[in-house]
Fold:
Amino acid sequence: MDYIPNILFAIVLVLGIGYFTRNVRKLIRNIKLGKEVDASDNKKERWKNMARIALGQSKMVTRPIAGFLHIVVYVGFIIINIEVLEIIIDGLAGTHRIGLKVLPESIYGFLIGSFEILAVLVLVAVVAFWLRRNVIKLKRFLSAEMKGWPKNDGNIILYFEVVLMCLFLVMNATDTPFQEMGHGNIISQFIAPWFEGMSETTLHTIERSAWWLHIVGILVFLNYLYFSKHLHIILAFPNTYYGSVEPKGKFNNLEAVTNEVKLMMDPNADPFAAAPEGAEDEVPEKFGASDVMDLNQIQLLNAYTCTECGRCTSACPANLTGKKLSPRKIMMDTRDRLEEVGKNIDANNGEFKDDGKQLLGDYITNEELWACTTCNACVEECPVSINPLSIILDMRRYLVMEQSAAPMELNNMMTNIENNGAPWPYNQMDRLNWKDE
Amino acid sequence: MSEQLKVPTMAEYMAEGKQPEILFWVGSAGSYDDRAKKITKAFVKILNKANVDFAVLGAEESNTGDVAKRAGNEFLFQMQAMMNIEVLNAYEIKRIVTCDPHSFNCIKNEYPSLGGNYDVVHHTQFIKELISSGRLSLEGETYKGKRITFHDPCYLGRANSEYDAPRDVLKHTNANLVEMKRHKRTALCCGAGGAQMFKEPEKGDMDVNILRTKDALETKPDIIATGCPYCNTMMSDGVKFNEKEDSIKVLDIAELIADS
Structure:
């Protein structure tokens, strides 16, 4: 009979981690729908970026208030989770506060005491975050793309954190032996009096309930991640690793185009040459992107990493002047479409069945794409190295090279470049006229 | 300009069997746009004054293809790039300076993988070199004490992390440099990038250059300094929109230095 809680705990743990693993696999499969991209270069710099930007939160603090609050929650989250290790061992082995058996009382007390202080700081930060979203109503949390699920998602996470932190404190406050020990109950000693006068059994029941709800809550939270913008707590790390290590102004050169241009410019190329053996059946590579499968794997990882903070959009010159373009929406649309494609694959035995939809048009409109000034403000702002601009550019490439759907003025400009090597209709031979004017 | 500018071409250098110290990439705006031509000439004046051994490609220069690339026309970009690279490589060009941050970014970052490897500098970086090596000396009288605010071009600043050269150069004018609230990495675009220069903006509340000019006007400047011909056009239009063109000048750093 004594083993029932342990077995129950093991089952809960396996279910929680198992379902999470299943969804992580799905996430990896979805990301792999994108084109492969070589990021094996600059390993040292990439690790450094990850350490600095994700682990060190360096770009969060460019906005000091949000940055500071975020660091509190981030540090709290990581450090308090050391406690989860103890909970798991206790749960599986049927022990109580195993840490006390391996560590001296003072060190254990110091650890738990720090967790308690952090728990309170997290609570304060979370309340501030909630106020920013719901009372102060910061503009970047109110954009058109933040209605419905994205708005609720943001709040649900905050409620989750409040509940988890409260459970942790209550669990400590109602643990009579822990309170009597007097080490580490730095905060919970003030909560303990609320439960004074209760019988030992009642206290024990509350303590056990809080303990169980805490670990179940953590597992639920873990599994909530996949459906939430909150995936960034994991994906920020790979995403900053794979983020660009090149100057921001450097846009990739399409290799498929290079090959064709070289052929076009080669005076010895035979225009009537037959295609090489076997090449007849090859589908020529599509230029640019009209759907998520045309994007590369890093761009898709970007989409899953986005936590919809909206710093990009709040710095976007197009968005600031009332245009429809919002870099955050580009990322949210990409993820939504990718999820839709993933579900389609799940429903059709691992095979994508054409659903008559695509990222371009059904999610992102031409109007949004043409409003971009390619100024890199969104890329600069992103605290986790997401690049919305690269997706915008790839979709413009599709519009121009596959559909010839550029705005008319741009077509005129490009025709001028083709004809006379300048965006305006001036004679190439007049290029040096300024010298004598 | 009263004095005669010396603008040798690469073809002339080649004929004499000489190689210049640096190639001046004039760019399409600098060659054809009336406002930008003044910037080009101001920069040549500086080059002449500092006795820099430079040359231009003249009619052998063609559009970098930068704007086509940003509009999504990778074909046109690569055609332009490869034609230009053929010319540049034939002349064995090693070093290039340009007044256009878009050409600067494009040749520096996007030409190498197509076979064009050069040391590319923006004119503000080159002027800084000329001043610090003592080749160019300024009296620093013309703009002494004037309030100047510098508008960072996206393709020099964020795109290539060069925020200091233009500011260092401006200090030599002895002007009073004032920063806009959005500057350096948070600088707002003038609205011309990404091929916007050549099309009508999408529907919105206002044009980007009006918002950016507002940032600039808040600093109560005598002069708005730019480092890009397109930014110059956009900011000039913004100043005109506010009917301030009589009290506020929009000048490229090359123009400010040429007169200092």
Notes: The two ends of chain A are 100 Å apart (CA to CA). The domain at 255-265+285-424 of chain A is CATH 1.10.1060 (Fumarate Reductase Iron-sulfur Protein; Chain B, domain 2). DSSP finds 21 helices and no strands in chain A.
